[in-house]
Write a structure and sequence with these properties.
By secondary structure, the chain is mainly α. Helices cover 52% and strands 5% of the residues.
């Protein structure tokens, strides 16, 4: 632990070697904030004793601190467009010397990169802020202890002052101001967007020298650094602490070096008490995992493409064809054809090699599909790891030879145990008198009892040997090969043909007779492995190119068409012209479709349906009602109907209204009865993800108000109907996933009603 450098030591050495500005990657939001605070305090306490520090007032504003108070924040986000819901006291404007008010959209108020500090006199307060904040003494103090020069601190101080005056509800705290004046910042997803944007602006202008950030900063943000520091070589994942992926390490290290400013960048990988140089070498030399396309069609994407294509589907299909997934598919097909062609031209290779190559090729293909999540035989992590192990063995001659030897040893041991058991059973049968095996042992003489005990023990040894043989990797490969040959595709036919060829070669030699079309036994496969060439074995496909499916273009396009069918069923898009094929039809987008396209949810249609904005107009969920009617016929009553339904049934028009429409209208009425805080809680159930540890659905439902419970019951019925329509059109579950997470509904309701956040968390 003594060899692990401290943060302040690292930063000082980088400063001495002119390697700032730097990004310090820490895999924890709280860790980033703590590191910034510790570095700031260390810098302030290192240069001067406390009794020689200038008397800088902490209260930059007379009467109250700049920092936010405890408890509930005074400004509340109400949407994604940076609007804030403020009370009357919070709407007070701050005027400058020219009488101008500064209380506009938050992100638009952020200072631009061409901010001129020479014009900051207009922003100097008149009797509102303490003069000590902008005094030369205060600025010189932070320049002496921090990482910035006097002029840089002065520019930063004016920027901080302007930001806090214009954005009082989200102004920087005193500790954060101290860090910024010292040239230190923090950047992670837990900060407000305005604060992150402020940090990014200072860093681009070289008015901030060190930023502590999570790994998300490594992609997509323009913050050029000369040096990157990786604080740890391991991070916590689903399986506990794991070493970083090579691609993640290279992505973070690649942020070092500023275009047009540096000829090279520097990356510092910091040692920890748990990871050292060996771990760094392992990460940097590991193979980079395959890049897999994450393209998936969605409801919002389908609606927007229809709108941009003026109702035609040409644009949508063109985008699917140009996606990375489709490119991977084409590369995959070319690679498969090339590999199959190479094997077809291997006239000099033995029949055993040809069979093993075809088997290896089929496993590599399935491994690639499993990693992409499109394998028909499963995509679990366990299956992927097993396939990777099998491919690794078949592609490595040394490993294949070792597996063969291990199987041969287990098979020979099993054969020996079976021979011993046969000998003991023969000895028992050859005894002059018969023995009733059902009799207790004390009724048989000692010699016979010992023989029976030996037979019992030997049978257990045989069972153990059989398990070892069946669990051997050679038996697993044989089992996988038999399963592949049961399929009806080109790979299965190739396996059958090559297996028949190798069997025919041995039958013609008279070595032994193998039944054509019979299953492949582990011993037979092991015999082939022993006789094949193991020197030139290698992967047949480039595993760094993974295709999501055998024909990703057709698969993604079929899912897009399924989405369009569901949207049409719910009245979000309407066919303007009929055609035999959906590709040549023309659509127009309704108001409901516009809402679906504007929502940024995984399943925008479900969100709109749960808010009463859409329902099954085409009544494609009629089968669901037939099932419910059958339950009613059997005496299982549906208690979802209430007195309102009974009253409505008396009207003449009730029968003519489709059931999905009645349910949607009822849901809208119940939504209108919710208070503002109850509505906030309900909406939170539609947008948040399920936490790892949460109460049961019943317990969460019981915490809701009566009005919320009625709305949730109606929403669950709408969800069931939507799922029925999605299943009818064969929409993939990952695309049409609907969620209603009630765990935080009561908490958000209390918070929206005015309770402080700290009180709500005590619930």
């Amino acid at each position: 632990k003594k060899s692990v450098p401290s943060i302040s030591t690292l930063i000082r050495r980088l400063q001495e070697n002119d390697l700032l500005p730097a990004i310090f990657f820490i895999f924890s939001r709280k860790g980033c904030d703590n590191a910034a605070q510790v570095l700031c305090e260390t810098l302030k306490s290192a240069d001067e004793p406390k009794d020689k520090m200038p008397n800088i007032k902490k209260k930059y504003r007379k009467g109250k601190k700049i920092g936010r108070g405890k408890g509930r924040a005074r400004g509340r986000r109400t949407s994604n467009n940076n609007d804030w819901d403020l009370n009357e006291d919070e709407l007070a404007m701050v005027q400058d010397a020219d009488g101008r008010n500064f209380r506009a959209d938050l992100l638009d108020q952020l200072l631009s990169d061409d901010f001129d500090s020479s014009n900051t006199d207009r922003f100097k307060p008149t009797g509102v802020y303490d003069d000590s904040f902008l005094s030369d003494e205060n600025i010189q103090y932070h320049a002496d202890v921090g990482l910035l020069t006097f002029d840089e601190v002065k520019k930063v101080a004016f920027r901080v002052l302007k930001f806090n005056m214009e954005n009082e509800e989200i102004e920087f705290s005193n500790d954060t101001v101290e860090q910024i004046l010292c040239g230190i910042g923090s950047h992670h997803a837990g900060l407000l967007p305005a604060h992150k944007a402020f940090t990014e602006t200072l860093y681009r202008l070289e008015l901030m020298k060190v930023v502590f950030a999570t790994e998300t900063l490594a992609a997509g943000i323009n913050m050029p650094a000369r040096t990157t520091i990786i604080a740890s070589m391991a991070k916590r994942g689903d399986k506990g602490m794991e070493l970083l992926e090579t691609s993640n390490m290279l992505q973070m290290a690649g942020r070092a070096g500023r275009r047009g400013m540096d000829t090279q960048g520097a990356c510092v990988i910091s040692a920890t008490p748990f990871e050292g140089p060996e771990d760094a070498i392992t990460i940097l030399t590991n193979e980079i995992k395959p890049v897999v396309s994450q393209f998936t069609p969605s409801f919002a994407l389908a609606v927007n493409l229809v709108e941009r294509g003026n109702g035609k589907l040409d644009l949508a299909r063109s985008m699917v064809q140009k996606s990375f997934a489709a490119w991977e598919s084409r590369q995959r097909e070319e690679e498969m054809e090339s590999a199959m062609g190479v094997m077809d031209n291997q006239d000099n290779s033995s029949p055993e090699d040809q069979f093993l190559n075809v088997l290896q090729l089929s496993l590599e293909k399935e491994l690639i599909e499993a990693r992409a999540g499109t394998s028909p035989t499963g995509t679990s992590k366990g299956k992927i790891s097993k396939l990777a192990a099998l491919v690794d063995i078949l592609a490595d001659g040394k490993k294949l030879k070792k597996v063969s030897k291990r199987h041969s040893g287990c098979a020979q041991m099993l054969e020996l145990e079976q021979s011993t058991l046969k000998y003991l059973e023969r000895e028992l049968r050859e005894r002059p008198d018969d023995i009733d095996l059902d009799l207790p042992a004390d009724m048989i003489d000692n010699e016979k009892s010992e023989l029976l005990a030996e037979i019992k023990t030997q049978r257990q040894r045989v069972l153990k040997g059989e398990r070892e043989v069946n669990d051997s990797m050679m038996s697993v490969i044989a089992k996988v090969a038999n399963n592949r040959m049961k399929a009806e595709d080109e790979t299965a036919e190739a396996l059958k043909n090559t297996l028949a060829s190798v069997r025919e070669s041995y039958n013609s030699e008279g070595s032994f007779i193998l039944q054509e079309g019979g299953i492949l036994e582990p011993g037979e496969l092991n015999f082939y492995v022993k006789n094949c060439s193991k020197k030139n074995r290698a992967p047949l496909l480039a595993l760094t190119t993974s295709a999501p499916s055998e024909d990703a273009e057709d698969e993604n396009w079929s899912q897009t068409l399924a989405i369009l069918n569901v949207l049409e069923s719910y009245g979000c898009i309407v066919k303007a012209t009929e055609s035999e094929s959906a590709d040549s039809s023309t659509y127009y987008v309704s108001s409901g479709g516009t809402h679906v396209g504007g929502l940024g949810m995984d399943n925008s249609l479900w969100t709109l349906t749960a808010l009463g904005g859409a329902f099954d107009v085409a009544y494609e969920s009629a089968e669901l009602d037939k099932f419910q009617d059958a339950l009613s016929f059997l005496g299982i009553e549906d208690d979802s109907n209430d007195e309102d339904d009974e009253i409505e049934e008396d009207s003449d028009d009730f029968v003519n209204i489709p059931k999905p429409q009645r349910e949607s209208e009822k849901l809208v009425r119940e939504l209108c009865e919710l208070s503002a805080s109850e509505m906030a809680g309900y909406v939170s159930a539609l947008v948040i993800d399920a936490p790892r540890n949460s109460d049961s659905a019943i317990a969460s439902f019981q915490k809701l108000t009566y009005n919320q419970q009625r709305v949730v019951q109606g929403a669950l019925l709408a969800m069931e109907r939507l799922n029925e329509v999605q299943r009818k059109f064969s929409l993939d579950d990952s695309i049409g996933k609907s969620q209603l997470e009630l765990n935080a509904c009561d908490v958000v309701t209390r918070w929206a009603a005015g309770d402080s956040w700290s009180d709500v968390l005590l619930m």
